[in-house]
Amino acid sequence: MKGKVKKVVLAYSGGLDTSVILRWLQDEYGCEVVTFTADIGQGEELEPAREKAKLLGIKEIFIEDLREEFVRDFVLPMFRANAIYEDTYLLGTSIARPLISKRQIEIAEAVGADAVAHGATGKGNDQVRFELSYYALKPDIRIIAPWREWDLNSRSRLIEYAEKHQIPIPKDKRGEAPFSADANLLHISCEGKALEDPWEEPEEYVFSRTVRPEDAPDRPTYVEIEFERGDPVAVDGEKLSPAALLTRLNELAGANGVGRADIVENRFVGMKSRGVYETPGGTILFHARRAVESLTLDKGAMHLKDELTPRYAEIVYNGFWFSPEREMLQAAIDESQKVVTGTARVKLYKGNVMVVGRKSPNSLYSEEIATFEADSVYDQSDATGFIRLNALRLRLRKSVEG
User: Fold this and answer.
1) Would you kindly state where each structural domain of the chain is located, as residue ranges?
2) Of 39, 50, 114, 180, which residue is the catalytic one?
3) Which end of the chain has fewer beta carbons closer than 10 Å to its terminal beta carbon, N or C?
4) Do 181-297+340-359 and 2-70+93-176 fall under one CATH topology?
């Protein structure tokens, strides 16, 4: 079975796990390996991954900056849906996997590879997200998931394998990491080991993108975010590209301790998992978008969208980005966003995001109608019949019950 693979495209970070996987693929499958490293804003220097791949004999190496595509084509469509999983998780890791998978398949087709490989473990959600995306884009692709095949089931075994095969390991990477982390432009997630007890508060060293809320400035920071058709286009009056805009919001939010979440979530594979996440700019964006929607969306449209949101979030979380149901929901959601143009003003203060203003040329809010003062456009006596009609079934039920 293993000998049937000729060329495989590996999602490669340059770290210990994927470097071991690279060599393991060469040894176990006897195949040519192509590496693909995506810059989606994880904040790490990627050139060392190129050098390590060269050192391990790789001739075809792809390192690509996908930050703009990530935010424009994946993060923003998801945010139009106000997607949030189990009321707390803004899906930062979930939304990165379909983009990596998409590009991996494109590279496989370009170089004539008959297989793809990833470094996700057999316990987590990412293996599902990667592989559902692979199959959706290329149904006949061969998938290799080393963590489900090999017996290198501990860090010490990985290091032993690396040393045996002369895979370089930096000295600071030899010790056991206190937790595992995954980062991109939208968020960073930390899980496992020191974080596995859900009763224990995470140590401050876990957080890397936000200051401790207690240490944030004693004066609030005000930010204005402008939206067009549901998407953010400017911060404090400055037009920015999608990735640049999210970067700016990350900086503002992080400096004010905004975006931390300590979560116990239900993984798709069935177990519960504790994670500590930072989504600074995304947290601002979530609240600001909702503020503009509150002015511009009709009540019926907004409430229907709110009913669809949990289903959309679950679809993304479970790895079904390239599914007909997600595309169908996206079309409905995007239709609703045609009127969502305007500006939200938010106040950031010691870990909190507070909406303090919103305006829109498409606003459905009417001071003339909403006022508690005297007006000439709303006849309050109309409410009598409205209430009596809505009370009819309640009165009938009570009369039958006696």
Assistant:
1) 2-70+93-176, 181-297+340-359
2) 180
3) C
4) no
